[in-house]
Design brief:
Blueprint (H helix, E strand, L loop, with lengths): L1 H6 L4 H9 L6 H13 L3 E5 L4 E5 L3 H17 L4 H10 L4 H17 L1
Antiparallel strand pairs: 1-2
């Protein structure tokens, strides 16, 4: 998805070539993943002259939100707490990031 968001429109070959710069990956793997992302509604596909052209179906923030929600539902039975605890404990967050998280939590508490 990052390649699609960065470029706006891509073919499977575009994504394959970009990913192949950093690691070994099969063209068919990229093609399969893009098909799955299309089926899940994250990408749209139109026929180009020689290949399908893929675009993000929605803005990055909205797609990421749906992907994270799907992940939380599948992996954590819908509870975000274990994921949040893991991220806060194990990720290298600087003071500004921690302060932002605290402000989000405080704002959420005020809404209740």
């Amino acid at each position: 998805m990052k390649v699609v968001w960065d470029r706006g429109t891509v073919t499977v070959r575009d994504v394959y070539e970009k990913l192949h710069e950093g690691r070994q990956i099969a063209y068919t793997t990229v093609m399969t993943m893009m098909g799955i992302l299309e089926q899940k509604g994250h990408l749209t596909r139109t026929a180009g002259e020689r290949a399908y052209i893929y675009r993000p179906s929605e803005p990055r923030r909205k797609v990421i939100g749906r992907m994270v929600q799907d992940f939380v539902t599948r992996v954590f039975d819908g509870s975000a707490e274990p994921l949040l605890v893991h991220l806060v404990k194990n990720q290298k967050l600087d003071e500004a990031q921690l302060a932002e998280i605290e402000e989000i939590v405080k704002a959420r508490r005020r809404k209740k």
